[in-house]
Amino acid sequence: MLAKPLVSIIIPTYNRAELIGETIDSIISQTYKNWECIIVDDGSTDHTAEVIENYCNKDTRIKYYVRKKKYMAGGNGARNYGFDLSKGEYVQWFDSDDIMLPNKINDDVQEAIKYNLDFVISSGYSSNFNLKNLRKKVITINDDLYINYTTWQTEIFLPSLFFLKQFISKFDLFDETLSRGQENEFFSRVFFLSRNLAKYKVSRKYNYIYRQHGGNKKTNQKKSYVSSYIKSFAYLSLVNMERGFKIKNKEVLNFHFNNLKKYFFLSLNNKDIKVSKFIYLNLTKKLLATNLKIGIIFCIVGFCSFIKGQTPYKLKKTLANYSL
């Protein structure tokens, strides 16, 4: 019979009074019972605290905290604080509007112990606000987890990953300075640094529901131009392009090179000179050091674009024809 180690379920929340009860109910309904649920409030102004405290009074496994000031505002500061409070042998970060299906924790624990894994990647469903129109989010890995993930061939949501705490403690946690893409930054960094070393398994069982709705930041981020979001995305692509050079992988290099060109044109056309210069200076420096021809072309195209205030179509088309 397999052991029953403690699992820490860490949930950041902000103004989720109308939804977090469903999330907590789904955790209480887990067939696996040896867990602690650490909920960290990022400064809610609705009655989230009251809802959670009612659950805490009924079930001592549920614990409510307010994010301390030493952690930056935002979901990632709350996630990092929750991790520092956790006592479990395994860690499951979860969101306050998503749903755990009953066997989620049990299945992940069984897989992790049976195969002595550093982490389990489980599949799940996405849904609309009312948890209808379920769509399977199938996870497939072809050869290299880092390459698949960073080139968006494999979509992995936060509820998918179930970590051995001893393993994930070796890494810096979520980057609290980023406005967007924090999960992507964390996962891609962990997958890269543990590349060919980490022991993991992809579970084919569908054990969570990822809710997509109007209040979900990820589904709203494309509706308007937000400077801090684009800078965060550009930073992630710069970092991953550097990794592409290190592992000499053209797929990674060109995926993020194309992203950076897109972000450069987008920021410039939105008159965001600060972000367009950030991309221009960092990308030009990297290209000149690694591919002189393309570096010179991008340097010229970028300079002409700043003078015009936007990228002329012919120059943009010329640059689009080059790859690393």
Automatic annotation (TrEMBL):
GO terms for molecular function: transferase activity. It comes from Mesonia mobilis. The chain crosses the membrane at residues 287-307. PANTHER family: GLYCOSYLTRANSFERASE, UDP-GLCNAC:BETAGAL BETA-1,3-N-ACETYLGLUCOSAMINYLTRANSFERASE-LIKE PROTEIN 1. Residues 8-163 form the Glycosyltransferase 2-like domain. Keywords: Membrane, Transferase, Transmembrane, Transmembrane helix. This is Glycosyl transferase. The keyword Transmembrane helix applies. InterPro entries: Glyco_trans_2-like, Nucleotide-diphossugar_trans.
